[in-house]
Design a protein that fits this description.
The protein is of the alpha+beta class. It has one domain. It contains three helices and six strands, in the order H-H-H-E-E-E-E-E-E. It has a six-stranded antiparallel β-sheet. Strand 3 and strand 4 form a beta hairpin. The longest helix is centred in the first third of the chain and has 8 residues. It is globular, with a radius of gyration of 14 Å.
């Protein structure tokens, strides 16, 4: 499957990056060079409400038990990058219990307990060398 960052443009990730304060080309530019992207089993979504805009890389339903969900967002002037999983990793910072429903989180988040890792590096985890 040929994958390029056009998918990110369609999802509005480039515009969301501007609003959050991330440099789209620096953070997500390497996705374009992968012919078989490590994110081929993720759906890119931008969600927002009156307080937040969140960029999500959401694993598809078949892979939610084995792939991380990643999110980037701005909160109180600081950009956050979270790595979330349904399984308990060796290192995690907090647990997040997904709400039953809201306009900010992807559907896979609802009514599940997630292990959260707060990352300082904004680079998508699957693109790190």
């Amino acid at each position: 499957m040929k994958y390029n960052n056009g998918i990110l443009y369609v999802a509005g990730v480039d515009k969301a990056c501007e609003r959050v304060g991330l440099d789209f080309n620096v953070v997500f530019g390497d996705i374009a060079i992968h012919s078989d992207s490590p994110y081929r089993n993720h759906d890119w979504q931008v969600r927002e409400n009156k307080d937040f805009i969140v960029i999500n890389a959401v694993p598809d339903a078949e892979n939610v038990d084995c792939l991380f969900w990643e999110e980037w967002y701005l909160h109180e002037g600081e950009i956050h990058h979270h790595l979330l999983s349904l399984w308990k990793p060796e290192v995690w910072d907090e647990q997040f219990i997904g709400p039953e429903d809201d306009d900010l989180h992807p559907d896979i988040a609802f009514s599940r307990t997630w292990y959260v890792r707060d990352l300082k590096d904004m680079t998508p985890v699957l693109l790190r060398r």
